[in-house]
Design brief:
Elements: H1 39-52, H2 71-84, H3 91-96, H4 100-112, H5 137-160, H6 170-185, E1 194-196, H7 200-214, H8 216-222, H9 226-234, E2 238-239, E3 244-245, E4 256-258, E5 263-264, E6 269-270, E7 273-275, E8 279-282, E9 285-287, E10 292-293, E11 298-305, E12 310-311, E13 316-321, E14 325-328, E15 331-334, H10 350-377, H11 384-411, E16 417-420, H12 424-440, H13 443-448, H14 454-461, E17 465-466, E18 473-474, H15 478-481, E19 488-490, E20 495-496, E21 501-502, E22 506-507, E23 512-515, E24 518-520, E25 525-526, E26 531-532, E27 537-538, E28 542-544, E29 549-550, E30 565-568, E31 573-574, H16 594-618, H17 623-639, E32 644-645, H18 653-674, H19 678-686, E33 690-691, E34 696-697, E35 709-711, E36 716-717, E37 722-723, E38 726-729, E39 732-735, E40 738-740, E41 745-746, E42 751-752, E43 757-758, E44 763-764, E45 769-770, E46 775-776, E47 781-782
Parallel strand pairs: 2-4, 3-5, 4-9, 5-10, 6-11, 9-11, 10-12, 11-13, 12-14, 17-19, 18-20, 19-24, 20-25, 21-26, 24-27, 25-28, 26-29, 28-30, 33-35, 34-36, 35-40, 36-41, 37-42, 40-43, 41-44, 42-45, 43-46, 44-47
Antiparallel strand pairs: 1-8, 7-8, 14-15, 16-23, 22-23, 30-31, 32-39, 38-39
Helix pairs in contact: 1-2, 1-4, 5-6, 5-7, 6-7, 10-11, 10-12, 11-12, 11-16, 16-18, 17-18
């Protein structure tokens, strides 16, 4: 076919497609029936016919992908195999054995051996539930009020002193308060605490963890510097010399120990906390010298890493890791070449330390002086609440402008190559870029929303090669702004979804920073929370799945191949099925004019700022009522959203912008305080989520599409876990319910897709992807991407 038949809406008309002739792909040397078909193969044939909608029984030697099978069909086949043949079937087994005969050969010995049916001991529900510890909403409310007081009080006192210069001390006061509270609550330190949930020790830990979360914005400015190391030492951590720690995802700094000259990448989770049914435990994390830990890795449940260990991005790590090991996802090997590397001197010179200090103070000053300068320029005849709203908006918009100007004219372009972490080139071109992006770039989404047509134009002006078309969609530009933009190549029809991390550089165990280009081919779609490594070259019409890591050469496919392919896994693997042609997103978002669209978004933001400022100044007691009214409006909007929306253009644009702004305010002002409390559970219930008793949810970001989420009792959801009920398939936004069974535990970066059902007492380990429509048998634990037993 030269072109696909299309419907009036521009979609592929599957009813007009010619019937495929699969006989041309059957190898001549293979006779499917030269060997008798076993009973197991017959069952699998029937399952394949039902799952993939084949008109006849498939050839037992040909993979379902070559016969036209899709990812949705694979999930249906997985569910049917679990129901009718083998309850512990996992998706990787299906992907790696995609023909009937291959799969039957692998399943036969597993069916005979039944001793692995239960992986986790079932919860004894007959135990006395009266003895179960229950959360205290009174303690949580007092803790939240105390957090608000400690955050606002220094600002109010400085404002009363009428000293602009003293505002520069606010970040340092907030950071010092954490150290003070930690020493008051745990004067003897936090070594190996194990206690019942909701005890005084648990709430003391929760209070410190919430305070750390509130300080995240300030901590992001210090990451990767000697000042961050010094602050961690004040918090009780034992940090070696010349260590580069580039993450703030640390739940218990007091239990962290890092050796000399070790690098820890962006968004690495250092988790000491482990939830159990009725208890919790804090584990130490020990990392040796000269180690390199890649971005978005998770160290959990007690870690002891020896020297010269390489942990690649998005790898879960627990237990003891021997010297010179290389961990890549779930695999581990010994690299003897690591031991032969010479030790290096990564110390910064005094002038480099001064450069970092001046840069950090400059970023702090930008925020403070923008706010105060705008306020002083407005005439006093304007009511105070309106002046405050205008200042707030001006400060937010100015951050966008200053961010782009600094990246263009101060930071400038970077060149591919190897650079020492203590070189001036690294500090000026890479560290400074990350500092500017973390401090200023988040204002793009907060002001004009995701997927805006402005984002590709800004990146093109900053030096990125981006196709001259209006069908490139980038959800959150700050992730790309942290990457050297002149090394980015994006072709027509690319879609970059939420929280896609573009890793600016990789670091070796001898302190070398490796910088490379990245390329996204035509009609590439990047799923949520995937990670793009330096040097990635993604061929056209590739769908990169959620929680997938793309390395420098993910596959051997080239742009000469016109098939639509799916990459999934850590590291990425080519899946044995194909998807229909990938669509670009609509070129019409909300209006024909990009400037009119920006003006509309800013106007709505100003209106919300005026209302919020009025309540804050003239009736602070009504602040709770304001947020409750906003919560009701958000709930009504999402409650009325149909389960399938063919285009975002059909949603009222003004209502959509208003909901976007209100939701952002919730995530900015409310959820950092409520994480891990029953007040967050109550809020989610008001937003139509169905949640049982004794449920702990670490952060509101962990639950999306609230109306479609069911969480049974005694479930534990860690802070960075994600329960998502929507997918964007082509141009269509689809919703499907998710059910989390009782006593289940979702660890960090565990991702549950729409339609999935966890039947109870399921442990989902870090960096695990539960596929769409998957069903997990009770009393099982899962790991990997996609999830396996």
């Amino acid at each position: 076919m030269k072109r696909f038949p299309l419907t009036a809406n521009g979609k592929i008309d599957q009813n007009s497609m010619p019937k495929p002739d699969f006989s041309i792909i059957i190898p001549k040397e293979i006779d499917s029936y030269s060997h008798p078909i076993t009973k197991l193969e017959e069952k699998l044939q029937k399952i394949f016919v039902e799952a993939f909608h084949f008109e006849a029984s498939p050839d037992v030697n040909i993979s379902f992908g070559r016969l036209g099978g899709t990812s949705l069909g694979a999930m249906r086949a997985l569910s049917l195999i679990r129901q009718n043949i083998y309850s512990q079937m996992n998706i990787n087994l299906l992907f790696t054995n995609s023909s009937v005969r291959q799969l039957a050969k692998v399943l036969q010995p597993l069916i005979i051996d039944k001793k692995y049916d239960l992986v986790i001991e079932p919860i004894k529900t007959h135990e006395n539930e009266a003895s179960r510890p229950m959360p205290s909403t009174i303690s949580e409310t007092i803790g939240i009020l105390f957090l608000v007081t400690l955050w606002i009080l220094p600002i109010l006192l400085i404002v009363l002193c009428s000293s602009i210069t003293l505002l520069l001390t606010v970040p340092f006061i907030h950071l010092f308060i954490y150290v003070l509270c930690k020493n008051l609550l745990f004067p003897l330190g936090m070594s190996r605490i194990e206690d019942v949930l909701f005890s005084s020790k648990y709430y003391s830990w929760w209070f410190l963890q919430r305070m750390w979360t509130l300080n995240t914005f300030w901590l992001n400015h210090l990451q990767g510097t000697l000042f961050y190391n010094a602050y961690l030492r004040l918090c009780g951590a034992r940090i070696g010399h010349h260590t580069n720690i580039d993450t703030s995802f640390i739940d218990t700094p007091d239990l962290l120990e890092v050796g000399d000259s070790t690098y820890i990448g962006d968004e690495v989770v250092l988790s000491s906390l482990t939830y159990y049914d009725r208890t919790f435990k804090l584990h130490p994390i020990r990392i040796g010298s000269n180690c390199s830990i890649g971005c978005r890795s998770v160290l959990h449940d007690g870690v002891e890493i020896e020297k010269q260990v390489v942990i690649k991005s998005m790898s879960p790590v627990t237990g003891h890791i021997s010297s010179t090991s290389v961990i890549d996802g779930l695999s581990q090997r010994i690299d003897k070449d690591q031991s032969s590397l010479d030790k290096y001197n990564s110390a910064l010179s005094k002038s480099q330390v001064v450069f970092q200090l001046i840069s950090i103070l400059t970023m702090f000053s930008v925020h403070i002086y923008l706010f105060t300068l705008t306020f002083s320029c407005l005439p006093s005849i304007i009511p105070l609440f309106i002046r405050l709203a205008i200042v707030w908006l001006t400060w937010s918009i100015s951050r966008m402008v200053i961010c782009v100007v600094l990246l263009k004219f101060i930071v400038g372009e970077a060149q591919p190559g190897l650079y020492p972490l203590n070189s001036w080139y690294f500090l000026r071109k890479l560290w400074l870029r990350q500092l500017v992006a973390r401090s200023l770039a988040c204002s793009f989404v907060s002001n004009i929303g995701p997927y805006h047509l402005l984002f590709p134009r800004l990146l093109r002006w900053l030096g990125a090669w981006i196709a001259e078309s209006n069908d490139i969609r980038i959800s959150q530009p700050h992730f790309l702004l942290a990457f050297p933009t002149n090394l980015v190549h994006i072709e027509q029809g690319v879609t970059v979804n939420g929280s896609v991390l573009f890793v600016p550089f990789n670091v070796t165990t001898n302190g070398q920073c490796e910088v490379k280009r990245i390329r996204l081919g035509r009609k590439v779609q990047l799923g949520n929370y995937c990670t793009i490594q330096p040097g990635a070259n993604i061929a056209k019409q590739t769908l990169v799945g959620t929680m997938t890591r793309i390395d420098e050469e993910p596959s051997k496919v080239t742009d000469d191949d016109d098939h639509c392919r799916v990459m999934l896994g850590i590291p990425a693997r080519l899946m044995p099925f194909q998807e229909f042609s990938l669509f670009s997103m609509s070129t019409k978002i909300f209006s024909s004019s990009i400037y009119f669209d920006i003006a509309g978004a800013i106007g709505i933001r100003l209106l919300i700022n005026v209302i919020l400022s009025f309540v804050l100044i003239h009736a602070p007691s009504l602040l709770l009522i304001y947020f409750l009214a906003a919560e009701c409006f958000i709930s009504l909007f999402f409650d009325a959203l149909p389960n399938e929306v063919s285009s975002i253009d059909r949603i009222n644009p003004w209502r959509y912008r208003l909901i976007l702004a209100l939701t952002l305010d919730f995530y900015t002002f409310i959820t950092p305080l409520l994480g891990g409390t029953q007040l967050l559970v109550i809020l989610l219930r008001r937003l139509k989520a169905s949640i049982g008793q004794d449920v702990i949810i670490g952060d509101m970001n962990a639950v999306e599409d609230w109306k479609h989420v069911t969480i049974k009792s005694h479930v534990r959801v860690n802070t960075t876990a994600k329960i998502q009920c929507h997918t964007s398939e082509g141009r269509t936004f689809r919703l499907a319910p998710v059910t989390i069974g009782p006593y289940s535990r979702l660890s960090h970066w565990a991702f549950v897709f729409p339609g999935a059902t966890l039947h109870g007492n399921n442990t989902i380990h870090p960096l695990t992807l539960i596929m769409k429509d998957d069903e997990l048998p009770p009393n099982t634990q899962w790991s990997g991407c996609p999830a396996t037993l």
